[in-house]
Specification:
Length: about 250
């Protein structure tokens, strides 16, 4: 299932084999979550997806495009990123190499929002040159489901507008997926009540009142591994359903 563990004779994808490329980033997620949270989440769902469909998992693309400081709560150490041009070229090269090895059903499973436009650019480039391929770009939050997100907001009192980067749901996912990597003692008891001014546009340099002292822009109150398991199980189920639906039609080999 893991391409990195295969020998070259093992790498022999059939017409129905999906290849899943986990895509993440290396950046701050508050004081309590590891820098590699996005990649950990993508890896987790890639493995679960491969077990649900006929899938192989490629090594993760763990460096992403830099997230604007306003979403990180300021400038903190750990933003190890690559430019949009480099990221697009790298994603394009990986997709192209996989098609050379016979894969035609390609899934980019992403957990960092600022990667999306560049992944789309890479997919468009690939399809221009390999029209027999099909590429799906899916973010884990796309398949949580509106009903579950609304239910979690009602149950916890955490508004959806207050639950994004390093917030309740993402913190819960990492607590469930990689509890050994979470610094539970560094999460403020109030979940991060220091709320900065939020803006929907981008300003450089970042205004001081949009920064925080911890990097918790939203709130991680009520985060926990049990909630993370609920979300993870729903995402895994919905993700597999979406892949089966979008790849039902035969591809023109």
């Amino acid at each position: 299932m893991l391409i990195g563990d295969m020998t070259w004779p093992d790498l022999n994808p059939g017409p129905g084999t999906h290849v899943i490329i986990p895509v993440g980033a290396l950046e701050p997620h508050g004081p309590h979550l590891p820098l590699g949270s996005d990649t950990m989440i993508s890896d987790h769902f890639a493995h679960r997806l491969a077990a649900s469909v006929d899938g192989h998992v490629a090594p993760a693309l763990g460096y992403g495009v830099a997230t604007p400081g306003q979403r990180l709560g300021g400038a903190f150490p750990g933003v190890i990123s690559i430019s949009g041009a480099t990221f697009t070229a790298l994603a394009t090269d990986i997709l192209t190499a996989l098609t050379r090895d016979g894969y035609r059903r390609l899934i980019l499973l992403n957990s960092a929002i600022d990667n999306i436009a560049f992944l789309c650019e890479a997919a468009r480039h690939l399809i221009e040159h390999v029209p027999a391929a099909r590429v799906m770009i899916v973010n884990w939050w796309d398949v949580v489901g509106e009903d579950l997100r609304d239910a979690l907001a009602d149950e916890t009192g955490t508004a959806r507008a207050d639950d994004h980067h390093a917030g309740m749901v993402e913190s819960s996912l990492v607590m469930y997926i990689s509890p050994h990597a979470v610094r539970f003692d560094r999460l403020p008891a109030d979940g991060g009540a220091e709320q900065p001014r939020r803006i929907g546009y981008h300003l450089y340099p970042q205004p001081a009142d949009t920064t925080t002292s911890t990097g918790i822009v939203y709130t991680a109150a009520h985060a926990g591994p049990e909630l993370g398991k609920r979300v993870a199980d729903r995402v895994a189920e919905q993700l597999a359903d979406a892949v089966r639906r979008e790849f039902t039609a035969p591809l023109p080999y």
